[in-house]
Amino acid sequence: MEEPNLSFIKEIAGEDESFQNSILDIMRKEYPKEVEDFTLNFSNKNYKEASKDVHKIKHKISLLGLKEGLKLATNFEKQLRKGNTELHDDFIKILNKIHVYLY
Amino acid sequence: MDCIIIDDDATARLITRQLCLNSGKINVIDEFSSAIEAIKFLNSNTVDMVYLDIHMPTFSGFDFIKTLKNPPKIVLTTSDKNLALEAFEYKSVVDYLVKPINKERFDKSLDKLFSISNNVEESIIEKKETPEHIYVNVDRRLVKVHIPSIFLIEAKGDYINIKTKEKNYIVHSTLKKIQDKLPTHLFFKVHRSFIINTSEIIDIEDNTVLVNKDVVPVSRSNKGELMKKLNLL
């Protein structure tokens, strides 16, 4: 099972250590609001908007090196547009993993 | 090259900024979380290029491109792989980067960007260096001659005879002087006494070339180079 990691962020950062800290700070700041928006739209069955929220969260999933997670999120984003919620539980597992890693 | 970054995701902006910084080739002037803010900025500022996210609330990247009258070069950045076809319908779009953008892909995109810019600059320089007309002194009058209409220039003692399809001009000058003023892709000195417009060549036989109705000698030493200038089958 893959775990969040900093390999991608380190590759971009090069020798700039402050970059790594800045990006994690921004992620910690933005992530709760993005998850909150998704949860609210999903529970209100506003799946099109929830799909947009997944799209936004997807970038953070990819930045934390979760390749399988990214595939699942991409699929979930598409399915939600059609009103299909099948992948919801698996997506929540990814969100929880990121939460544990960031905070 | 100066750029701005437009993306509603702060992490994405930071990564693009860092990639620009690492490259040492792109100077980030500013960044915007909304395309509308960026349009306001571009109303009073110019940049060479824009890193632009497609999916943004209320005003998308595509809306942004459609709004600008003369958009700068645009590199699209998106998590959506499925919009590439639509993206390249816009002339200003140079590249399409799928997030997360890695260093290797970003550098490739820079190569593309700079090669496009160089081609544009070269064509501008070529246009500037290739004037359409030349002014020549005929009987103390400066007469305007349309360069592409010249098909032959012949040296005659201290004078040159500039032949166009409409008229001939006898000018007190040398072949060397006029050759320096003519575009090299069009004119070639085939003989110590003749410069021809290569686009006007009708045929070549042994050591002569037929230009318009004039048969012009070709020096043996210049024939090889003349042949290189022709689009041979």
Automatic annotation (TrEMBL), chain A:
For whether the record's keyword set contains Signal, the answer is: no
Q: Which residues carry this modification: Phosphohistidine?
A: H55
Q: Which residues form the HPt domain?
A: 16-103
**Gene3D superfamilies found in the cross-reference section:** HPT domain
Phosphoprotein found in the keyword field: yes
GO molecular function per UniProt: protein kinase activity
PROSITE patterns from the entry?
HPT
Which GO terms of type biological process are on file? Answer: phosphorelay signal transduction system
Q: Which UniProt keywords apply?
A: Phosphoprotein
Q: What is this protein called?
A: HPt domain-containing protein
User: Which source organism?
Assistant: Polaribacter porphyrae
UniProtKB/TrEMBL annotation, chain B:
Leader sequence residues? none
Q: Name one GO molecular function term.
A: phosphorelay response regulator activity
Q: Which SUPFAM superfamilies match?
A: CheY-like
Q: Does the record's keyword annotation contain DNA-binding? A: yes
What is the protein's given name?
Answer: DNA-binding response regulator
Domain (HTH LytTR-type): residue spans on this chain = 134-232
Key words of the record:
DNA-binding, Phosphoprotein
Q: Where is the Response regulatory domain?
A: 2-114
User: In the record, which positions carry 4-aspartylphosphate?
Assistant: D53
**Record bears the keyword Phosphoprotein:** yes
Organism (species)? Polaribacter porphyrae
